[in-house]
C-alpha cells in the first residue's frame, strides 16, 4: 500500500443527544478505533485538547460511555481570524458485545489519544475445544 | 451591565459561535498552499501577534517538522497508528499518513521568535509579528 497517501481532514461529527441542553452548545464524537484481543477489548479515542483528569469513563448495563471535557481557559483573550474547525467537549457511547470486567478497566491518555483496555470476563474468553 | 448567570456552557457557546463566524474566512484567501488540507488549522490574534492552533492527536513530537519564513510556516510530519498483531478490528476511524502543509500569512512574522508547543494532541504555534510590521501610532502635529 502507498504510504504517501494524502491525509484528508475528517469532518467532526456531532453527538445526537436524547435531551437537548438549554444552551445549544455542540458536543463532538471522538474518532474511534476498536479492536479485540484474546483477553480484552481495546477502544482508542482521539480527543485533542483534553487533559488528564477531564475524562470520565463508565460502563453501565453493557454500555461504555466516555466523556472528555475541554479546558477553555486557553482560548481566553484570543480573537479568531481564520478557522477551519470548531471545538467542544467530546462524548461517545458504545454498546459492548462482550462481558467486561469493570473493576479492571485501564485508561491511558497520551497526546490527546485515550486508550481504554476493557478486559473480558473469564466466561467470555474464547476456548479451544478438543474434539476427541 | 452585569451578566447574570455566567455559565461555562455559555462561554463555550460564545466561543463556538465566534469560531463558526470565521469559518474559512477570506483572511487567508487561497494562500494556504499545501499538499492537502490536513491538519486543520485555526488562526487567532493575541494582542498584536498570531497564534495558530492545530489539532494533531497522537503524533510523535519528533516526527513533526516546522519551518518558518517571514510570512510562511510549513508544518510537515507523519502520523502512525499501529495495531498489535492478531487482533480483530471492529472499527477503524482514525486516519494516519504523511502530511505537509504550508500556511501563508498576510503579515510579516519574526521567524526567530516563533515558538511551537505540542501538548494534549494540540500543536500551538506562537507567531510574533515582525517589529517593522507592527502598527505605529502616528501623532498629528
Alpha-beta classification of chain B: mainly beta
- Residue stretches of chain B low in confidence (pLDDT < 50, at least 5 long) are none
Distance between the termini of chain A: 44 Å
What is the class of one domain in chain A in the CATH system? Answer: Mainly Beta
* CATH fold descriptor of one domain in chain B: Immunoglobulin-like
Strand count, sense and barrel status of the largest sheet of chain A are:
4 strands, mixed
Low-pLDDT parts of chain A are: none
Give me the CATH architecture of one domain in chain B, please: Sandwich
> What's the arrangement of strands in the largest beta sheet of chain A?
1-7-5-4
- Relative strand content of chain B: 35-45%
Kindly describe this structure.
The complex is a heterodimer of chains A (132) and B (141). With 132 residues, chain A is mainly β. Chain A has a domain at 28-73 and 83-124: Immunoglobulin-like, CATH 2.60.40. Chain A is 0% helix and 43% strand. Chain A has strands at 27-28, 31-36, 40-46, 50-60, 63-70, 79-82, 89-95, 106-110, 113-119. Chain A has a four-stranded mixed β-sheet, with no helix packed on it. In chain A, strands 2-3-9-8 form a four-stranded antiparallel β-sheet, with no helix packed on it. The mean pLDDT of chain A is 86. Chain B has 141 residues and is mainly β. Chain B has a domain at 30-84 and 96-129: Sandwich (Immunoglobulin-like). Chain B is built from one helix and nine strands, in the order H-E-E-E-E-E-E-E-E-E. In chain B, the strands form two sheets. Chain B has a four-stranded antiparallel β-sheet with strand order 1-7-5-4, with no helix packed on it. In chain B, strand 8 and strand 9 form a beta hairpin. The radius of gyration of chain B is 19 Å and the shape is globular.
